[in-house]
Amino acid sequence: MRRTTAMRTGLATLLLLGTWAGAGSLPASATDATPDTAATDTAQSVRTPEAPASPALLSAMQRDLGLTRSQAEARLADEKAAAAVETRARRAAGAAYGGSWFDAASGKLTVAVTAAAPDATVDAVRKSGANIRTVKHSARQLDAVKARIDKLPAPDGVSGWHVDPSTSAVVVSVIGAQRADNDVQKFVERARAAGPVTVEETAEEPRTFAAGTVGGDPYYTGNVRCSIGFSVHGGFVTAGHCGRAGAGVSGWDRSHIGNFQGSSFPDNDYAWVNVGSGWWTVPVVLGWGTVPDQLVRGSAEAPVGASICRSGSTTRWHCGTVLGKNETVNYSQGAVHQMTKTSVCAEPGDSGGSYISGDQAQGVTSGGSGNCSSGGQTWYQPINEILNRYGLTLHTA
């Protein structure tokens, strides 16, 4: 099976064309409502600021992560605290920082620190509130190893590679059935020569979730349907494989929305589209009838191990955990760098859709393996990289 892109339908998050009568109904046409009406309906459908998350988002976490409601609420609180700890701990560790990850069992962030770190540095990291693990290599050293591997031509039998702070190594993923392939073995040898590397086997190759046009969903370019990621001031962000710069974009009713103003794929997988012709943006992730619409309040990055949920126009809401960061994914169209890996499933048409942790935007769907029936894994392009690349401002509540 070859890698594919996740295109197929429209608004995985938030470009609204007016009001929607209730959770799950498609947005009405621009002539059916005014922006003021849309804002009122949005405010009624999303969670209150006091709640940790919308009831339906908590329900999705319970379904996909096997949690009770109280456990889901407690986990969101722990993850929010861990994100704050990570900032302090990383600053305290300095050059000795070896990466970090969230442990759901303890509800705490673990920070890796190199063995050569002075006692004062270790004490400062501990005082930040993090658990500590001693490792051989710093995050900077591991990133340098990964950067060297990024320069190697990868055969189809290699699905990707990423830094794993818990093992203090770069993990190279190979397709199990092709591990004995000469080109795969040669790549692994060259990767190991670049620095500390471990090899893991995977059953399936990553693919982007592309598909032909399917009626009834919002965002189309040519004969491809994709999902909207997040509203920004002046437009929305999505996956780069959904369209090239200049390509026209239409909504669920085939009315013109705008054009791709910037797009990058492969190497990256992000793009942004301007909004006009009676359409406007709202800081909301759509629930598609599975969950109520969710307000977006920022883009604080969730740590490895944190829970995360995805909204896409094909499979709607699904949740899982962050498995890794800064992973290179080797699609058939070329490698894409600096991706975040998750245990959330996706299917064709979910490309470009939104990943959100609590009320914090995380990124846009790129691709993955498996599906939402048998399970799978996915990758997303982090939102802050996209905003910085194009000088965009996230539309927040």
TrEMBL record:
Transmembrane segments: none annotated. Keywords: Disulfide bond, Hydrolase, Protease, Serine protease, Signal, Zymogen. Residues 215-387 form the Peptidase S1 domain. It is an enzyme of class 3 (hydrolase). Residues 27-51 are annotated as: Disordered. Its EC number is 3.4.21.-. SUPFAM superfamilies: Alpha-lytic protease prodomain (SSF54806), Trypsin-like serine proteases (SSF50494). Belongs to the peptidase S1 family. This is Trypsin-like serine protease. It comes from Streptomyces xiangluensis.
